[in-house]
Amino acid sequence: MKKLVLAAMMAASFTAAQAADIVDTAKSAGSFNTLVAAVQAAGLVDTLKGPGPFTVFAPTDEAFAKIPKAKLDALLKDKAALTKVLTYHVVPGKVMAASVKPGAVKTVEGSSLMVSAKGGTVMVDKAKVVKTDVEADNGVIHVIDSVIMPK
Questions:
Q1: Residue 80 lies in a domain
Q2: Residue 150, in any domain of the structure
Q3: Taking the CA of residue 122 as centre, how many other CA atoms within 13 Å lie in the half-sphere pointing to its CB?
Q4: Cis ω for the linkage preceding 53 (within 30 of 0)
Q5: CA 98 to the chain's CA centroid
Q6: Helices 69-77 and 79-88: crossing angle, nearest 10°?
Q7: Is 140 helix (H, G, I), strand (E, B) or coil?
Q8: pTM of the model
Q9: How many of the other CB atoms lie within 10 Å of CB of 97?
Q10: Residue 65 belongs to domain with CATH number
Q11: Which residues form the domain of 32?
């Protein structure tokens, strides 16, 4: 009986530890430090910690490293431009990979990004989706290999 209670307590604490919003999920992954810093610089933390749901196409640190340092530094200092770029990576609602259909998808930024699939590879604009369905309390993250820019 003691073992059963202990197992139930451990399962409950593990489930509670797993439950996190989009920002905390990105932080704990360890590969989105630049994205998290950009979200903080743009003042979007509270939004992405909100109820959502949101679908975030999240560029990794390696994706941000593809941007020349001077251009990235300038972007991080321009809150309006940074907000525009970051909200272009967010789609309203929780869209799991199995539900994604090729075509234009309206972003929180206001314009549409283009989703395409060819030979098992899914692209969002010119970024390759490298990991899907990283679930958070308030949405889902799909990992991409490049930062996508609104038109």
A1: yes
A2: no
A3: 18
A4: yes
A5: 17
A6: 100
A7: strand
A8: 0.85
A9: 12
A10: 2.30.180.10
A11: 21-144
